[in-house]
Amino acid sequence: MPHIKQVAITGGTHGNELTGVHLLKHWRSDPAQVARSSFTTELHLTNPRANGLNRRYIDQDLNRQFSLDDLNNTALLGYEHQQAKALNALLGPKEDPRVDFVIDLHTTTANMGTSLIFNSEDPLVVGMAFYVQQQLPHAKLFMDPGERLSDTFLTSVGRYNGFLVEVGPVPQGLLRADVYNETQVVVMHCLDYLDAFNRGTLPNLAGQREGFCFVEKVVLPENEQGELTAMVHPDLQDRDYQPIAPGDPFFMTLAGDTLAYTGSKVVYGAFINEAAYYDAHVGLSLMDKIQIELKSEPTAD
Amino acid sequence: MPHIKQVAITGGTHGNELTGVHLLKHWRSDPAQVARSSFTTELHLTNPRANGLNRRYIDQDLNRQFSLDDLNNTALLGYEHQQAKALNALLGPKEDPRVDFVIDLHTTTANMGTSLIFNSEDPLVVGMAFYVQQQLPHAKLFMDPGERLSDTFLTSVGRYNGFLVEVGPVPQGLLRADVYNETQVVVMHCLDYLDAFNRGTLPNLAGQREGFCFVEKVVLPENEQGELTAMVHPDLQDRDYQPIAPGDPFFMTLAGDTLAYTGSKVVYGAFINEAAYYDAHVGLSLMDKIQIELKSEPTAD
């Protein structure tokens, strides 16, 4: 694998997730923290207009607009459609990117702790997740592999389909110091990893680690008028990454009745009661627990 | 005191506080829950437009628009200015209200548990707080007495300056079942209290109970550009209603440095890191611990 020369740290991709926005401000005033001598680090606030209004987005979720087809579709004229094209020009272009690796900072209202989200089986990317989890054993690995060019995340604009750091729980529109500190620690480990990779000084990494793979989103019950009739059950609330078995309490109706999980096998919850998904009435994601393999040791040429 | 004939339960006064909005939907489908034979209960979603957009407000905070001067000021033309006038026509008018008692349902992102907020020393109002706390000893009493006609809260439109039920922590824009259930329990006690008052069957209430009285709001540190340079300190986060002594950790700068509380006496925090106050960069409210007196037993004529 070639050396990593250019790393971008991005925040405010969702404008009301303030942690990344303020870490960028901090690092701009103290660039030494994100500098590593073997590569250049750049910092980008990616949805300043939504951030200025303290909203997730203006017209559409920016972090779903980066498939190559959509980037090339001149009929898509929403604010975030345009912003994705601008970011592709700044960081990419996707077919032959200038930036090697994008680390995008997010938060969630769900009790997901520190989640490392990546959509690539590339050893450089998987190796970063394994390295960070080796330093921070409480971090969870959240993998949904796919093709980089069709991937819709901002991170897919880099040469490697990089890394989304997702920390919670924190409400939208505010800063929690614990979440701010934790996000900063994770990013330091990510940068140290890329630096060690470039220098050939990576420690031994496990060949396999436990992780979670996205299965499906689950919509909350609605009535015929499309109004919510139930919410996440109190026994499921805050139990991200815990098993959900057939028959377990799943939803609670507005009248207080329990609705059970009707699936046929054990799954695991994530993004349980994420506020950002209420516009689509999504209550949680279901995940499979998987073993993630590091197919070869990441080594620069 | 005269009998209570007409009680209004209101929700969605802040459009992204979903708990009250959905309790209203539930009670509309099951009116027996909020019915008491000695008075009539009516249910009102008070800021439907902000709720439809999942925002606290459209133009200005609705729950600051109910002073008599503002209600009579025809130059105030914002959406919530107009909505306040419409609600005053529906529930009031403030000088001679149709509705006797307004119970307004709110949530907070702060770790305030169950807070009973009222701005009146009237024995009927204070008695409700004492009664609810007798049933739910974890509930906190939050009092800021003033004149009903100049009070800016929606609850001041009723004949008695009623009661704001504030439960948290819950992020904006979502439902937590625990907060939903707790809010419902509090409202049931409020209605039972008014019913017992009308019937002359109130239990003995304490003459005095501990509570908290608003002192001032504290703004987070800013730079010359008006940008936040610090956040609530991790040792203060989630410690609502706990003492803050001179020298205690208060804020943490973006660089991680601790700023101490510089006041001269012990105070108590509330609304610590409330997302709704970030537009004004307010980090928390300071409170005094006080003894609240029930000046006479509430008794109907």
Structure description:
The structure is a homodimer of 301-residue chains. Chain A folds into two domains: 6-208, Aminopeptidase, CATH 3.40.630.10; 210-293, N-terminal domain of TfIIb, CATH 2.20.25. Helices cover 23% and strands 25% of the residues of chain A. Chain A has helices at 18-29, 48-52, 68-71, 79-91, 123-135, 177-199; strands at residues 6-11, 40-45, 101-107, 113-118, 140-143, 163-168, 208-219, 230-232, 243-244, 249-253, 258-260, 267-270, 282-293. A ten-stranded mixed beta sheet of chain A has the order 2-1-3-6-4-5-7-13-12-9, with helices on one face. In chain A, strands 8-10-11 form a three-stranded antiparallel beta sheet, with no helix packed on it. Chain A is globular and about 60 Å long. At the A-B interface, helix 1 and helix 6 of A face helix 1 and helix 6 of B.
Helix-strand blueprint:
Two copies of one chain form a homodimer.
Chain A: E1 6-11, H1 18-29, E2 40-45, H2 48-52, H3 68-71, H4 79-91, E3 101-107, E4 113-118, H5 123-135, E5 140-143, E6 163-168, H6 177-199, E7 208-219, E8 230-232, E9 243-244, E10 249-253, E11 258-260, E12 267-270, E13 282-293
Parallel strand pairs in A: 1-2, 1-3, 3-6, 4-5, 5-7
Antiparallel strand pairs in A: 4-6, 7-13, 8-10, 9-12, 10-11, 12-13
Helix pairs in contact in A: 1-6, 5-6
Mean pLDDT of chain A: 97
Query: What quaternary form is this?
Result: homodimer
User: How many distinct folded domains of chain A?
Assistant: 2
Number of helices of chain A: 6
- CATH-derived topology of the largest domain in chain A: Aminopeptidase
> Per the principal axes of the C-alpha atoms, what is the gross shape of chain A?
globular
The amount of helix of chain A comes to 10-25%
Strand order of the largest sheet of chain A: 2-1-3-6-4-5-7-13-12-9
Task: Give the CATH level 1 class of the largest domain in chain A.
Answer: Alpha Beta
Biggest interface between chains: A-B, 35 and 35 residues
Level-2 CATH architecture of the largest domain in chain A: 3-Layer(aba) Sandwich
Which strand-content bin applies to the residues of chain A? 25-35%
Order of helices and strands of chain A: EHEHHHEEHEEHEEEEEEE
CATH superfamily of the largest domain in chain A: Zn peptidases
Structural class of the helices, strands and pairings of chain A? alpha/beta
Q: Could you tell me the number of beta strands of chain A?
A: 13
Binding site for Zn(2+) (chains A, B): 14, 17, 106
Organism (chains A, B): Reinekea forsetii
Active site (chains A, B): 166
Enzyme class (chains A, B): hydrolase
